[in-house]
């Protein structure tokens, strides 16, 4: 089903309800002591803090409780950089949006997208029926191996069971050229997944998707902040995305991304074992898990030094 943007009734949730949704489908969701954030599963035995844009540091006690009490192998969060914690990542957020304040090129790209495509909100059945090409092309451009239909359904099924998820679709006639999944939770919006089919790139559909995301969330729903997440920890992240995110209306904040392995795993993941993992990454260059692991070790200062990387294509 397709619903015109101006007629769409947004789906919303709360942080506590979202955590319960994840637990119900068997995923990790651990609320903080003050319940101002939760730790959510993003890989098999890894959790990240949600919302991603918070920079308050959790206590050592909380970190230990998350790792030891829930069989978690790795947790991550961001904090403000300082001398001991230099910036190693970028955070992309927006608190206001006016397309007329964008550059001339960006405004022209939005107009082109509006002229060549149609944007509306779609439901999950429509996305599952029409969205595979956009998903496949996006993952393939990133050089990832999970670009098949199994990966498509594996990525979408947990999202479908979670509250507050909304999907903007971009259409070229009857073909779904691209889509953007985002969550409205409490007073913020978080980007979840964006995909686009390669054959429709000339339509500037991504400019249109970001325009509708920001305009809808900030000017209609009036959330306080929209976050599209952090720069990629994968070392092969493509150049140009950083500038693109800035050009379409996002503020770039330098942050320090913290990664904490469970103590039992530290003998496996350290500067001495890094060459082994780096070598495995070269053998399996399309493995998302290995690429993320090597990027994580780099961000922790293990292995060769790297500056803050280019951004990932949203929740890959």
Summarize the structure.
The chain is 34% helix and 25% strand. The chain is α+β, with helices and mostly antiparallel strands and 316 residues long. Strand 3 and strand 4 (46-50) form a beta hairpin.
Helical content class: 25-40%
Instruction: Give me the count of strands.
Output: 12
CATH T-level topology of one domain: Aminopeptidase
What Rg, in angstroms, do the CA atoms define?
19 Å
What average pLDDT do the residues reach? 87
Beta content comes to 25-35%
Note the run of SSEs as H and E.
EHEEEHEEHEHHHEEEHEHEHH
Helix tally? 10
State the major sheet: 12 strands, mixed
Return the CATH class of one domain.
Alpha Beta
Instruction: Look at the structure and name the CATH superfamily of one domain.
Output: Gcn5-related N-acetyltransferase (GNAT)
CATH architecture field of one domain:
3-Layer(aba) Sandwich
Unreliable segments of 5+ consecutive residues: 234-238, 305-316
Q: Label the structural class.
A: alpha+beta
Gross morphology is globular
Distance between the termini: 25 Å
Task: List the strand order in the largest sheet.
Answer: 1-7-8-9-10-11-6-12-5-4-3-2
Written overview of the protein:
Helices cover 34% and strands 25% of the residues. α3 (104-116) crosses α7 (205-221) and α9 packs antiparallel against α10 (288-299). The chain has helices at 15-24, 60-69, 104-116, 124-130, 132-141, 149-160, 205-221, 241-247, 274-283, 288-299, and strands at residues 2-4, 29-31, 38-43, 46-50, 74-79, 89-94, 118-122, 165-172, 175-185, 188-196, 225-230, 251-261. With 316 residues, the chain is of the alpha+beta class. β4, α2 (60-69) and β5 (74-79) form a beta-alpha-beta unit. Residues 234-238 and 305-316 have low confidence and may be disordered. The chain has ten helices and twelve strands. The relative contact order is 0.17. The chain has a domain at 2-10 and 92-252: 3-Layer(aba) Sandwich (Aminopeptidase), CATH 3.40.630. A twelve-stranded mixed β-sheet has the order 1-7-8-9-10-11-6-12-5-4-3-2, sandwiched between helices.
